Amino acid sequence: MLKITRYDDVIRFDLARTLAGRGHYWTTCYWVDGLLVDTGCAHAAPEFRRALADFPVRRIVNTHSHEDHIGANGLLQKERPEVDILAHPLALPVLADPRHEQPLHPYRRIFWGWPDPSQGRPISDGAVIETERYRFQVLYTPGHSPDHLCLYEAERGWLFSGDLFVGGRDRALRAGYDIWGIIASLKRIAELPLQVLFPGSARVRHEPLEEIRAKIAYLEDLGGKVLELHRRGWSVPAIARRLLGGPMWVEVVTLGNFSRRHLVRSYLRGADGRGA
């Protein structure tokens, strides 16, 4: 399933696997001036390829290597071998061999699927990617994943944030995420004069800084409470129940891979580096 929305010169594609006539667990990618930011999920890749038929694609940037952001890389590269794919150096092994480098839990295979392999080139923090009309600065923003990056267009105040910021008050986290890294990366983008934020899912934000700062405050406050209860001898399950409420549907769907307990553990695991 696919939806297309235009924001000035930016074309947004929302993609999802269709199950029982409905799209589930949508992911988002963007086209602007020949640059494609992310490529969605493998289940929607053929439909996405058809939707791009009238759009020149000169370069693809993957914000990170999760399967719902690299899903059409391989298909597009086969069809358009001249297209350059750029990603953080840590992402390149996953792009080249996603089945072995990034094993997927059942829910990830069901909703997003296995990406085809693709060949990419590394980009580093501070690099500039130029199109005919725009200049995008690469910002390394780890936390959601070790290879996560954002793209910032300073003249327009655009930020393509991948999954660093999608909004909401997190009550659960996937295994392997680094909550203190997420907070540090959010603080980095909060220093920019942002006008429009284009996230890897959820709605586009205009004048997003207030929301970003509110999320930083929420996550830091939650982290302080987690550490205080831990110092008082509370267990991880008890802290999760006290601060994050009762069981969540996402915990059932993901068989516990996305959970309140993983959020608590991430705060405790990275406590020594908090505020970095």
Order of helices and strands: EEEEHEHEHHHEEEEEEHEEHHHEH
Which structural class best describes the helix and strand composition? Answer: alpha/beta
Output the strand order for the largest sheet: 1-2-3-4-5-6-7
The biggest sheet amounts to:
7 strands, mixed
What is the subunit organization of this protein?
single chain
Helical content, roughly?
25-40%
Overall number of strands: 15
Using the CA coordinates, give the radius of gyration. Answer: 19 Å
Uncertain segments of ≥5 residues (pLDDT<50)? none
> What does the average pLDDT come to?
95
What is the top-level CATH class? Alpha Beta
What is the global morphology? globular
Number of helical segments? 10
Number of self-contained structural domains: 1
Distance between the termini: 40 Å
The name CATH uses for the topology is Metallo-beta-lactamase, Chain A
| Strand fraction | 15-25%
Which CATH architecture is right?
4-Layer Sandwich
Please name the fourth-level CATH homologous superfamily. Answer: Ribonuclease Z/Hydroxyacylglutathione hydrolase-like
